[in-house]
Design a protein that fits this description.
This protein has 3 helices and 6 strands, in the order H-E-E-E-E-H-E-E-H. It is an alpha+beta fold and about 120 residues long. A 6-stranded antiparallel sheet has the order 1-2-3-4-6-5, covered by helices on one side. The protein starts with a helix and ends with a helix.
Amino acid sequence: MESLREMVEREVSGWPGVEARPHRFGGIEFRLRGHEIGHLHGSRMADLPFPVKMRRELVAEGKAKPHHLLPQTGWVSYYPCGPEDAPAVVELFRLNYEHLVERGKRKAEKSAQVGETG
């Protein structure tokens, strides 16, 4: 049976543009275009950086907790109980992945507009 870490790693690593690599504090992190989507500390904790507004919403909805060390930032922590929580962890990574994809599109559109007027 796959561990939660293995399930999440398999899923998130398969998304277009995602790079998986060792995290500086242990575990594995996932990046998109140089931006961290989030990281796993084994199968016991996931940490993800969101804009503060999104963090507030996720915490209010009970989908995550404020980050264990940086509670006033946009970072969240999620403490899975076991492999059955893999879909909830993947969903958090998906939300941040989609946020970063959209941010990249807006940035590219803005650059194209500047190029047209420049």
